[in-house]
């Protein structure tokens, strides 16, 4: 699930169409023309582009900070890999500073201190979602 929240804006679907395109080993997502794209990649899974908005997520951390805490998230794609009975696979991904950057009030790309929450799951139901929080200092 993707959002594009930054210092100035929250993510709200409305008629927003992010550009999602297949690339070698995955997908490239570009929020708008001129935005830094980010990549969802896998060396073994098959990637399928999607553009499904999940609306009205409640973000507790933002509410605790006194900010608007309702935001939309985009499911930009799905990845599938076949497993044999009893077989497991490890999911790994890399986030570079560029992929965590935002356009600040000085009109520069910066990585601000804070927490970045990454969620994954086989559906959007609370019990199916696993979360990882990255802290930038």
Structure, explained:
The protein has 137 residues and is mainly β. It has a single domain, classed as Immunoglobulin-like (Sandwich). Helices cover 4% and strands 42% of the residues. The protein is built from 1 helix and 9 strands, in the order ββββαβββββ. Strands 1-2-3 form a 3-stranded antiparallel beta sheet, with no helix packed on it. The radius of gyration is 16 Å and the shape is globular. The mean pLDDT is 79.
Fill in the keyword field for this structure:
single chain; about 140 residues; mainly beta; Immunoglobulin-like; three-stranded antiparallel β-sheet; two-stranded antiparallel sheet
Instruction: Output the structural class.
Output: mainly beta
Low-confidence stretches: none
Give me the side-by-side strand order of the main sheet: 1-2-3
The ordered H/E elements are: EEEEHEEEEE
Number of strands: 9
Q: Treating each run of at least 4 consecutive H or I residues as one helix, how many helices? A: 1
- Topology-level CATH name: Immunoglobulin-like
In percent, how helical is the residue content?
A: under 10%
From the alpha-carbon coordinates, what is the Rg to the nearest angstrom?
16 Å
Structural topology:
Layout: E1 19-23, E2 26-30, E3 38-41, E4 46-58, H1 60-64, E5 70-80, E6 102-103, E7 109-110, E8 114-121, E9 129-136
What would a concise description of this structure say?
The chain is mainly beta. It is built from 1 helix and 9 strands; from the N terminus they run E-E-E-E-H-E-E-E-E-E. A hairpin with a 5-residue loop joins strand 6 (102-103) and strand 7 (109-110).
């Amino acid at each position: 699930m993707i959002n594009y929240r930054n210092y100035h804006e929250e993510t709200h679907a409305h008629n927003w169409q992010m550009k999602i395109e297949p690339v070698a080993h995955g997908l490239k997502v570009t929020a708008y023309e001129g935005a830094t794209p980010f990549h969802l990649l896998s060396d073994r899974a098959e990637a399928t582009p999607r553009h499904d908005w999940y609306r009205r997520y409640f973000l507790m951390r933002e509410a605790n900070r006194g900010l608007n805490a309702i935001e939309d998230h985009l499911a930009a794609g799905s990845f599938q890999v076949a497993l044999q009975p009893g077989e497991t696979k490890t999911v790994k991904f890399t986030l570079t500073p560029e992929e965590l950057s935002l356009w600040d009030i000085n009109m520069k790309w910066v990585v601000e201190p804070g927490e970045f929450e990454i969620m994954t799951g086989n559906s959007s139901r609370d019990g199916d979602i696993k979360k990882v929080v990255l802290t930038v200092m």
